[in-house]
């Protein structure tokens, strides 16, 4: 049985290639020409990703996350962010894999339909790995000074973390 | 900015390791970090080639231009100063669409294509244009209608309704995105564009 969402990608590809055929361009050759540029993308983002991963791995392996968690716990209490979800909030802007593993451990420990499980789910469903996006997108075009990007993105993440709890209380525990 | 954050994280980690007695783990972390970056890049290489190929067809066939005509009126309201016939419009719209549909594998290479087009219109500048900042902010607060990864993990752990978090997540995302965009619009005046 196919789901509706399973058709999105094939239709996407079909429209692009179908339009090429309709306009009578050399579809195969054009694809191959474009695909070559994939290597340039690879080469342009690798250096900045190496820099990002060095910082992230150092923070994780030195157990610095635990210390930041301790420092921020009073702030989280004030904003009614569940303390169990705090390490996830701290990891989420810097490491997608890291926050996902914290999320999984929260879900398996408290259950997906518990209050904490739901708050964590909304947090995960409404944020992206901010610094990964910054590194990849600016790395690809060779920009090192990023102006106000990080501040704006982190404010958006912060909004998600605070609102997640409010939304869950509003929807499931009125 | 990135410079300071980077330095701060590295210094903080070393000091933490001294007090926590985790210098050994830290050393291992440093050694493996390079490999982790290469592994991730390699795992994305195929997707980059695939989407660059498809985007090249869209561009050469004129689909890009046709599509741009439809979405330009909406996009130009958010991205001020974006040319109505800009090559960036198709990749920006496709990036937003793939984010909405939860196709993150497609969103990244298409988004990079959009950044390259925006950078071309920003030639000779060492800092990103307001539109480039806005685009990255929108991607880091990506609005998703189908949070497939989260729903998958919830289902694996026996949730009665894995998808029940969609509505609160979407509302939260919209608010976060609004905050991000508003902040970008306000702060763009205070950060030097050179």
Keyword list:
heterodimer, A: 174 residues, mainly alpha, 8 helices, B: 194 residues, 74% helix, 0% strand
Q: How would you describe this protein?
A:
The complex is a heterodimer of chains A (174) and B (194). With 174 residues, chain A is an all-alpha fold. Chain A has one domain (4-172). Chain A is built from 8 helices and no strands. Chain A is globular and about 65 Å long. The two termini of chain A are 37 Å apart. The model of chain B has no long low-confidence stretch (mean pLDDT 89). Chain B has 8 helices and no strands. In chain B, helix 4 packs antiparallel against helix 5. Chain B folds into 2 domains: 1-49; 62-187, no CATH class. Helices cover 74% and strands 0% of the residues of chain B. Chain B has helices spanning 2-20, 23-60, 63-78, 89-100, 104-120, 130-140, 148-156, 166-187. Chain B is mainly α and 194 residues long. The interface between A and B is large, with 97 and 107 residues.
Radius of gyration of chain B: 20 Å
Form type of chain B: globular
Number of DSSP helices of chain A? 8
Largest sheet of chain B: none
The overall pLDDT of chain A, averaged over residues, is: 91
Produce the secondary structure layout.
The complex is a heterodimer of chains A (174) and B (194).
Chain A: H1 8-22, H2 27-61, H3 64-78, H4 86-91, H5 96-110, H6 115-125, H7 130-140, H8 149-172
Helix pairs in contact in A: 2-7, 5-6, 6-8
Chain B: H1 2-20, H2 23-60, H3 63-78, H4 89-100, H5 104-120, H6 130-140, H7 148-156, H8 166-187
Helix pairs in contact in B: 2-5, 3-4, 4-5, 5-6, 6-8
Question: Can I get a quick summary?
Answer:
The complex is a heterodimer of chains A (174) and B (194). By secondary structure, chain A is mainly α.
């Amino acid at each position: 049985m196919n789901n509706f969402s399973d058709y999105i990608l094939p239709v996407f590809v079909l429209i692009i290639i179908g339009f090429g055929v309709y306009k009578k361009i050399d579809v195969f050759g054009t694809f191959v020409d474009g695909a070559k540029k994939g290597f340039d993308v690879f080469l342009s983002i690798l250096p900045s990703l190496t820099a990002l991963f060095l910082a992230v791995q150092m923070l994780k392996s030195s157990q610095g996350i635990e210390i930041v968690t301790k420092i921020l716990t009073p702030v989280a209490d004030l904003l009614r962010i569940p303390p169990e979800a705090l390490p996830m909030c701290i990891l989420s802007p810097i490491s997608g894999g890291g926050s996902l593993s914290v999320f999984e451990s929260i879900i398996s420990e408290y259950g997906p339909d518990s209050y904490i499980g739901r708050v964590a789910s909304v947090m995960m469903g409404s944020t992206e790995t901010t610094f990964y996006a910054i590194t990849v997108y600016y790395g690809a075009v060779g920009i090192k000074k990023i102006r106000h990007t990080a501040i704006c993105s982190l404010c958006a993440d912060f909004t998600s973390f605070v609102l997640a709890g409010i939304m869950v209380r509003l929807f499931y525990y009125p | 900015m990135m410079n300071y954050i980077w330095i701060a994280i590295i210094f903080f980690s070393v000091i933490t390791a001294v007090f926590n007695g985790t210098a050994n783990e830290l050393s291992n972390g440093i050694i493996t970090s390079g490999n982790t970056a290469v592994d991730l890049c390699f795992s994305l290489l195929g997707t980059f080639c695939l989407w660059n190929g498809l985007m090249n067809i869209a561009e050469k066939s004129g689909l890009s231009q046709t599509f741009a005509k439809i979405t330009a009126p909406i996009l130009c309201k958010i991205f001020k100063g974006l040319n109505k016939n800009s090559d960036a419009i198709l990749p920006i719209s496709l990036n937003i669409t793939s984010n909405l549909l939860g196709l993150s594998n497609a969103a990244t290479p298409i988004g990079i294509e959009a950044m390259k087009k925006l950078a071309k219109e920003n030639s000779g500048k060492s800092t990103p244009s307001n539109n480039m900042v806005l685009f990255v902010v929108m991607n880091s607060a990506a609005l998703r209608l189908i949070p497939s990864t989260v729903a998958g993990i919830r289902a694996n752990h026996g949730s009665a309704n894995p998808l029940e978090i969609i509505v609160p997540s979407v509302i939260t995302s919209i608010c976060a995105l609004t905050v991000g965009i508003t902040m970008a619009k306000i702060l763009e005046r205070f950060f030097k564009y050179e």
